[in-house]
TrEMBL record:
It comes from the Eukaryota. GO terms for molecular function: methyltransferase activity. InterPro entries: Methyltransf_25 (IPR041698), SAM-dependent_MTases_sf (IPR029063). Residues 73-163 form the Methyltransferase domain. Coiled coil: none annotated. This is Methyltransferase domain-containing protein.
């Protein structure tokens, strides 16, 4: 998701650029950029926690032995870095590197075996076969299909032979009847389509096979109830999508639907929140992993 954060900041800036003078624009853009970064960091931190609970693990690839000894691990589009920092504390003999277009402010007590770099997943700034494990996720909302395929190729390129690549992606369209939430998701997909992006969770396994560079490709799918119906994990999931569809993308969704932001909040979003709280909104999460030949 980190790859798309810079794009979202630019889009938010464009929304206000027509309404402010050049002088006030500079301060306002800076404040908006900071707010978006903080919201995205909060979202990715919660996301890391409930993804761990949903899959009952931080990873599914069989890399435990490598982590205990001296592995070299990269998380791309790492966001707040919560996963990396937690893993670095648990596996002090391994090295953990986070890659993001817009790296988050780092905590002062960052583990010594952790580092973060600014970089693009379309061109990972490392030599071939450097890492034992590459982890990423939520790329489908930022990349076209061609870009996604290239990102996979880049991850495989920097992974050692015998190393593993793992990708987490959600399918957020509701499995059960939830018309307001479904309309928000459909509108979000419409926004993506305007940028040439289509959600392709159903294509991801084929894309991994088609590289011919991975073997032992596996996947796991979990269904989660969004909101109180899903217990603590469901509440965390609802919080993530509240930040996503209310704060990060709310204005764009309102514009796309021909509504003001307040109208969007008081009608469609309010009704979607009620569905989260009182209905059984089910969505799916996928985890794919494969070993480099």
């Amino acid at each position: 998701m980190g790859q798309g954060l810079t794009k979202r900041i630019k889009r938010k800036r464009s929304l206000i650029s027509q309404q402010r003078s050049i002088e006030s624009d500079t301060d306002s853009n800076s404040n908006i950029s900071t707010k978006i970064v903080l919201q995205e960091n909060e979202r990715t931190s919660i996301y890391f926690t409930y993804l761990r609970g949903l899959f009952n693990s931080d990873f599914s690839a069989p890399i435990e032995d490598v982590l205990i000894l001296n592995g070299k691990i990269m998380e791309t589009a790492c966001g707040s870095g919560s996963w990396l920092i937690d893993m670095a504390l648990r596996y002090p003999n391994s090295e953990f590197i986070g890659l993001d277009l817009n790296p988050s402010p780092l905590p002062t007590n960052l583990p010594k075996n952790t580092s973060f770099i600014k970089g693009n997943l379309q061109s990972i700034p490392y030599e071939d076969e450097e890492f034992d494990f590459l982890k990423t996720g939520e790329l489908q909302v930022d990349f076209t299909e061609v870009e996604y395929k290239h990102a996979i190729d880049e991850m495989i390129r920097v992974t050692k032979r015998g190393g593993w690549v793992e990708i987490n992606e959600p399918d957020i369209y509701p499995l059960r009847h939830a018309p307001n939430y479904a309309k928000i998701v459909e509108s979000f997909y419409g926004l993506l389509a305007l940028r040439g992006i289509s959600v392709m969770t159903d294509k991801l396994q084929y894309m991994l096979y088609s590289t011919n560079s991975l073997q032992d490709i596996q996947f796991d799918c979990k269904i989660i109830n969004v909101g109180p119906q899903g217990g603590e994990l469901g509440n965390q999931c609802a919080e993530v999508y509240t930040i996503y569809f209310k704060d990060l993308y709310g204005q764009e969704l309102a514009d796309h639907l021909g509504l003001t932001y307040d109208e969007y909040l008081q009608t469609l979003w309010k009704n979607a929140e009620e569905e989260m709280n009182n209905s059984c909104i089910e969505i799916r999460y996928y985890r794919f992993w494969g070993q480099k030949r």
